[in-house]
Amino acid sequence: MEGPPLRVIAEELSQLTDEYVAEVSGNSKMQKEQLIGQKVLQVFSWGKNLFLQFPEFSLKVHFLMFGSYRFNEERNMVPRLSLVFSKDTLNLYNCSVKILSNSDVKNLYDKELDIMSENWNLAKVTGLVSSLSQDFICDVLLNQSVFAGVGNIIKNEALFKSEVHPLSVVERIPKKKLAGIASEARNFSLEFYQAVKKGDNIRSRLTIYGKKICPICGGRVVFRKTGKTKRISYFCPSHQKLYE
Question: Lowest CB count within 10 Å: 153, 155, 200, 239, which one?
């Protein structure tokens, strides 16, 4: 799950603030009983992670590839973790859950790198991108230590809008163009967020992801795994320049 829809989930679940955990269950092997009696201080997202913060520690949730949740509802399967609060119930499925100290959360997760954060820092992100000089830009965009919250959809859209081939090597890309790629990732993330927030189908906002024909030149869109991450890229070889 990419950063924009996760931000919407965090906003929905923020109504759990000030509620106390009354019951816990699920097939998670973590010591979930320590959550009983804890008061939710806030719910927030960072990158692809969802956090429920309690007084002394936080619950980190990562939905992986196929994770899901139900708020005051259930699926016909055993949840990874079920939290019954004083008024509401949160069920988490097919996800990773972990307890972290609040100090670790503060130290490990830099808001200036979160693509959805109000504190997102273009200069800092661009500097980190430049430091990965030998990497393919398609891999860097999926590096959560640089672009926290960016997933494959945002990666493809940002590269297409920037007119850069996914297998371009970072050190060969002009610095101004690198900043442009980062800005496009940020801009599309905000557009993605607004679409999810309104309940719109994100596919209506896509220009290259899942397409067969380039909307600019009319050429065939290439669809294949790229980079060390071997994630699928959609790109137009005529329209997107290869820096190598």
Answer: 200
